[in-house]
Design a protein that fits this description.
two-stranded antiparallel sheet, 2 domains, about 500 residues, four-stranded mixed sheet, about 70% helix, about 5% strand, alpha/beta
Length: about 500
């Protein structure tokens, strides 16, 4: 196949025109800085401990007089357990600090409250984070019921009357109503029925109560029950293909978070590749339609070849796509660096081991070929379109293919040996995305080579076809109608008007 002649200087001028045309717009820079702005806002909110959820005031109307104290105690205990889990995680992140590990043992032996004072004294940063977490966890406050019947409480729920809490007038957001008819009944009343924290709290309390009653009938108690659950045999995962180790349960063949991280990294790279191809192809399509409708293509053809226009546009939009996704790349790079430097060492080792030369090399190959494949196709379809409506008609099948490719990518995390994923990694339209997520599972070399070869052949064919479609769409000006007439005349052998 003879490649078309290209004057690189003219192609670069076209690339520069497309790139600068987008970059100099205000909208581009708004979208460029938006991830940084949103990240700064989220960081500020997190650092200040700002609770974006409003405080909800809930009450318990317990006509039986037996359950209110238990539900309130469970609410307080849940908040304490959440703080204890946060504290333990922060202290265990300091494995070389003897004081931190001593506090972990204190929490295990005596409880969280016994270590709180020492944490405030020796670890002010952790204490500050605990205060913020405590503030965030206090978004539901239990207050006394403002009336003794549910009918009398309803005006408080719809805002006609205000309840009292510590001398302040507050709006009652919900009430848990406990009463007896033929059996115990529990209702939850709230105008905001989507906020179910109080309802879930009551459900958990009565579920635990039912469990305790059931165990008591057999002479058992909940403490022994949960102790037995904690002592249950833990199922471990081992990888027989992992290098090293011999014999059953060899620890150096155990599956760790470091072994799983390459799959998550490959998933992220595949999604980035999909996003780059999708956004770049769509920009190429809109650019072609705009220039054709404004008669700019005819002017460009006076001094440039078809091949130079296509090549220049591919380069320009590729540079634009890289620029547009640069904020996400930088955030990802700094995030990975932060995890490696300050996060769990096993996670950091897994991330480092994920970025193998093979993964990076094939990612670059599939990124280039996938972009050229879809980009050339969208350029040709843009040249055939006379309007946005024409473009939507022509690109709908390809959009369905791209969307299907996105749904195939998650299979790399759950079932990397799925026949669907294997087929998708060899099928040229989905190969750029599917093969990337298969790389951590070490697919056969012949499948890798076949996938690249098929995609390369398909890409060269699309380039040749796109050149003809581009030339026909621009010179004839007949667009979609001309294409359908050609299909009827040449393929269906029908006469056209």
């Amino acid at each position: 196949m003879r490649l078309p002649a290209i004057n690189l200087r003219r192609a670069l001028l076209i690339a520069q025109r497309d790139y600068v045309g987008y970059v100099k717009t205000v909208g581009f820079w708004v979208s460029f800085f938006l991830p940084f702005i949103m990240g700064a806002i989220l960081l500020f909110v997190a650092s200040r401990g700002i609770n974006v959820s409003p405080v909800r005031y809930e009450a318990i109307l317990d006509e039986t007089g037996q359950h209110r104290a238990g539900i309130e105690a469970l609410h307080a205990r849940s908040a304490s357990q959440e703080l204890e889990a946060i504290t333990r995680r922060l202290l265990e992140a300091l494995p070389n600090d003897e004081k931190a590990q001593g506090l972990v043992k204190t929490i295990d032996a005596e409880g969280f409250d016994s270590a709180r004072a020492q944490i405030n004294e020796d670890f002010p940063l952790i204490a500050s984070q605990l205060e913020k977490a405590e503030t965030a966890s206090s978004k539901m406050v239990m207050i006394p019921a403002p009336a003794q019947t549910i009918e009398a409480i309803k005006p408080f729920l719809d805002g006609q009357e205000m309840a009292q809490y510590e001398g302040d007038a507050v709006k009652l957001n919900g009430v848990i109503h406990i009463y007896e008819t033929d059996s115990l009944q529990v209702d939850y009343w709230s105008a905001n029925f989507n906020a179910q924290e109080a309802q879930n709290l009551a459900t958990r309390y009565f579920r635990d109560l039912a469990t305790a009653d059931y165990l008591a009938k057999g002479g058992l108690n909940t403490a022994d029950y949960f102790q037995a659950r904690s002592e249950a045999v833990q199922v471990k995962s081992f990888d027989p293909t992992k290098v090293g180790g011999s014999g059953a349960g060899s620890e150096d063949q155990a599956v760790t978070i470091a072994d799983r991280m390459p799959y998550f990294v490959a998933f992220a790279l595949a999604m980035y590749l999909w996003m780059s191809v999708f956004s770049g192809s769509y920009m190429l399509l809109t650019s072609m339609i705009e220039e054709k409708m404004n008669k700019l293509l005819e002017m460009m053809l006076a001094t440039t070849r078809f091949s130079e226009i296509i090549f220049g546009k591919l380069m320009g939009i590729a540079a634009l796509t890289l620029t547009a996704t640069l904020p996400y790349l930088l955030i990802g790079i700094f995030g990975i660096a932060g995890v490696i430097a300050f996060g769990d060492s096993a996670v950091g080792e897994g991330i480092i081991s994920a970025f193998t030369p093979g993964l990076l090399g094939f990612f670059a190959i599939f990124l280039v070929l996938g972009y050229i494949f879809y980009g050339s196709l969208f350029i040709a379809l843009g040249a055939m379109s006379e309007s946005i409506q024409d473009a939507q008609t022509l690109t709908t099948p390809i959009m369905f293919v791209l969307m299907a490719c996105m749904f195939v990518i998650p299979l790399g995390l759950s079932t990397p040996d799925s026949p669907i994923l294997i087929f998708a990694s060899l099928f040229p339209l989905s190969a750029p995305f599917a093969m990337i997520v298969r790389l951590p599972s070490d697919p056969p070399l012949w499948q890798l080579c076949l996938s690249v070869t098929l995609l390369l052949i398909m890409t060269l064919g699309v380039i040749a076809l796109s050149g003809r479609m581009f030339r026909y769409g621009v010179l004839s000006g007949s667009g979609v109608k001309g294409l359908t007439d050609w299909i009827k005349r040449k393929i269906l052998r029908r006469k056209t008007n």
